[in-house]
């Protein structure tokens, strides 16, 4: 099917079918949802040949259309990648079902019982790029949390996604769940994404996954409430009292261990009085791992062969072995810098001063604030949530690493025995 | 000042000042915020003459401009109303500060300590109608929860609001808090509301208060995340096994006790087999209190002198002594009706059947679901939250009655001793 094919089911019909499916899913027991997830994991591996054939078609189109090698790599599925996708689905089986969890409760003075419980959103929409792994990942997370999901993937992956959704729907049917619990709207092309963003009332929440541009477009245009996962211009501040060995290890880990992810360090701030002591060993260790240092003047005076930092460096999420480094006068100057340039993802202070640590934790307005720890810990898996839905940098609903619980809403259950209000 | 006056401070400058004030407020201790609230309560009463003079000017303009008597009533302040507004502010003093409350926490296997704590949003924007009580109310709630607030009230109340904000700002200054914690943008007229809805990044969350039209406009147009407080087309379903006395009392309380509020009953659904037993006493009691019955055919066959219900009645929030009544075949038909017409605010089942009660609580997708209780209990005060921020009918962030905690976000605080990720 191509963008110009005639859709046999209308867009609104698909969303209405998702709503009906969501009613069934909302009360489906964890056993049944887990059986569906296990069936999906098996089916993804069993259908390897069919999936890879569709993927090869997308890759061939991509090469013809000049898709960059980076994007081609993200689009590519292999036997091994499908096995690891299936493994990830099986890991979601092992997680606790968030639906029905009691958040809080009380008995009112008149005897009325009050319980706030987690319930699914209903229908989740998601808009993402040509990464077929997201198709499996988000479908599994939505299913486990009792939500129907409507998928709009990048058009460069549409053949792969169509087969993946077929495979998922067959698995759903095999356990008796409605196939409309997982649907693609790729056949509506770009217009589908636009319509999804307008579908207030039919879609409960929209989760964009991908580049900052994609997320920003959805945030700006959507009339459906959005859960935003944002970019990370992440800071570490080396305070005057920072331990040298700790500073070296944490900065190295935060920058080098996996530079392409959002919790990796992008800007290092160093207290002026400790810079002569700390910067040479910290930067030498980074350089040994191939990191390019974008240095302000005071840093360049303490460490040779750096690149001069420009104003742009302070707001750049490199996602590579590059690091911006700036010497600041004191803690206040460090927090001023963070306030001006941070994306409010994760910031860490390395210090042995209790008062400075507490000020930093209290005053820095980011999703995750740390003392004496690597910023790489900002991660759903590391936090013990099991699954990685994404890292929210917005303040509404979810902030920081999102687990399955963040894919739910709540409802209040009130149990009376005839009480009326006086 | 009128709509055409030249603004001395630009719109963006005001929002930036609010942001700076929010940084101070975010770490202000409860003692200081409470002192500010107490100063506001005193100042509102002390400045009665000045406030009523401005209010009389707005009322005179309203009469000249043909403002309806209902809107004039909502606009009117009196000595007594100011005292009760001051009392309400003092009640907020007594509430627990939500900022710093620990939501959850754990120690990771590597010894890293993890705590999720409540923090203010930062800057709250609010758009409301010509009800000056909202000015005091929302300013006090925002202050207690550590947020700066930017107010856009209805232009018909702009003289009153300007004086109220002056009074609040003087009270803030008297305890040493920044006056920009509470600002009005009324001087920018309608354009101010539009700009506020575009101010993503400067304003963290927007809370519209008022009519369904106002809320819908904000929800549709805002690029800033919105907390929506919605209309209540509230249902009670009388099941086959409903106790007659309980049905009579709960339906009467839900409809009659305060018909003008969102948790009041609007549509009564009755199981067909119990309708001959229940409808005559239930409707007789309502009629004795002056309720007009908008009846479907099956209801009209059981109770004389009703008005014929039209399709529109099923989705009308009367907010008056009117009630739509429909006989349905069974629980499934009742839930189908609710699914089709509810605004997902509050629905209650009256029953003595455990299985039906549990199905209703589980399957009805509303902010509050009840068994054997009056829908009038859906209220922040009744739920023990102390303050009434509003009742959210959306699923993101807050659902149901909102207390001070719902005016906060969270942040993760991570305390390590040099841990890096392996």
TrEMBL record, chains A, B:
Domain Aldehyde dehydrogenase intervals: 15-294
Alphabetical list of Gene3D superfamilies matching this protein: Aldehyde Dehydrogenase, Chain A, domain 1, Aldehyde Dehydrogenase, Chain A, domain 2
Top-level taxon: Bacteria
Subcellular location: Cytoplasm
Listed pathway(s): Amino-acid biosynthesis; L-proline biosynthesis; L-glutamate 5-semialdehyde from L-glutamate: step 2/2
Enzyme class at the top of the EC tree: oxidoreductase
GO cellular component: cytoplasm
Keywords tagged on the record: Amino-acid biosynthesis, Cytoplasm, NADP, Oxidoreductase, Proline biosynthesis
EC number: 1.2.1.41
Single GO MF annotation: glutamate-5-semialdehyde dehydrogenase activity
Catalytic activities: L-glutamate 5-semialdehyde + phosphate + NADP(+) = L-glutamyl 5-phosphate + NADPH + H(+)
Principal location listed in the UniProt entry: cytoplasm
A Gene Ontology biological process term: L-proline biosynthetic process
Keyword Calcium: no
Oxidoreductase among keywords: yes
Alphabetical list of NCBIfam families matching this protein: PRK00197.1, proA
Family: Belongs to the gamma-glutamyl phosphate reductase family.
Protein's job: Catalyzes the NADPH-dependent reduction of L-glutamate 5-phosphate into L-glutamate 5-semialdehyde and phosphate. The product spontaneously undergoes cyclization to form 1-pyrroline-5-carboxylate.
Protein name: Gamma-glutamyl phosphate reductase
Taxonomic source organism: Conyzicola lurida
Underlying gene: proA
